[in-house]
Prior knowledge:
- The structure holds two protein chains of two kinds.
- Chain A is mainly alpha-helical.
- Chain A contains ten helices and no strands.
- In chain A, helix 1 (3-13) crosses helix 6 (141-171), helix 2 runs antiparallel to helix 3 and helix 4 runs parallel beside helix 6.
- Chain B is mostly helical.
- Chain B is 79% helix and 0% strand.
- Chain B contains nine helices and no strands.
- The longest helix of chain B is centred in the C-terminal third of the chain and has 29 residues, at 178-206.
Amino acid sequence: MERGLHRAVFLRSLLIQACWSYEGMQNLGFLYGLDPWLRRIYPDPEEYRRAAFRHLEFFNTQPYMAGFAFGVIGGLEERRARLPEEQRRAVEDQIVRMKKAMGSSLAAIGDTFFWGALKPACAGLILLSWLVFWSFGVSRPVLLGALLGLACFNAAALWVRWRGIRVGYATQERLPDEIQRLRWHERVRWVRRLGLAAALVLTVAALVVPPQGGSPGWWGPVLLAAAAGARAAGLSAVRSYGVALALGCVVALAGP
Amino acid sequence: MNPWNLFVLPALSAWVALLECDSVLVGQWMVSRPLVLGPSVGFLCGDIRMGLAVGTLCELFSFDRAPVGSAIPFNAPVAAGCAVLLCAGPDAVPIPLAFPAGLAAGYGHRRAEYALRFWRARLTRDAAESLEARGRVDWIRIHLLSVGVHALLTAAFVYAAAGVLGPGLSAGWDVLPDLARRGLQNALDAAPFIGLAALMHVFFRKA
Lengths: 256, 207
């Protein structure tokens, strides 16, 4: 795969959700990403047009994992173009099947890793770095902490986006084996552990130095236990806040 | 109209809308997260600490809500942007009221996003027609239309939320019964613990 083409598909993959709709979801974004590749594979305008129409079909996956799909489908389109006319139909069907299968399976991995582990862990890292930077009197703590968190998140996200295209292209039908070899579950576990450590430090810090000022009191652990209980019972943070508002009024009514 | 509503608020609303595009449409570099957006808007308003506090609370209330599939979680960047803007300006709303108002704005924006996602289906039809007629898709036009309309709508929404609601909420705070004010303050005091419990829950669940 040429470097220029790889770069073009990667840059275009950053806009995979730019035209997200309920009807086709990422269909336009996928076609936009694959467009330079299709133009190269099909110099004949009619062939290109037919290929482009094929990719206007519904497609959806986790945006950071889309690189794998671009690589696999680009490779399959290349294979299709090399085949004689009567054998092309089978590859076209395979492309449709692969897109459907990859969309959901890549999304499941990407959602768990990026949304479920890395994003909250990086949020925890930013908060923790602010705490540390402030404690040690580092200048521009807010900027540095935010940059640190963004760098950690984007290093992983951009690497997967960039590398995924090449891995997908190289492995094609063997992509599931390659994905397994990348040990996502283990990585998710580690990120979660790091995130949990950051969250625990932040919680202890909030109990020792209350965020709203003043000295620590008995109400800190009580509030935390109540909030944790509400969360474990399935109450979202916003709903818990609604309960806190109602209880806050009751406390205000009972107070001096 | 004062200079805040005429110049500063439109510019800041545009900044919020620009960063918000990162959340779904362009890049997903996380610069739209309240932890980044809040302090940046706070800095532009001249009070980075307030932006930091509000942004952190909005982040802790939203990080576990992912835009998975067709789900539209409440819009955290809009919530943080509106809450920070409500806290700034000539009719500054106190944080205990601005924070829930920001959350409400984040929920309100979901309606607009929902409508936009239906509207964008026409872009696929445009692309198909363009392919049929000219053999190519006008990608620049399609992207400008999609992202531009989204950004404009978000900017208008943030401006309306901060510019129209702001003075009303500010005046409302003054006439609010003492009980409600103290209740809001108590809820705000509890908010960091609610957020931290949510953060720990995410990792405890499957760690």
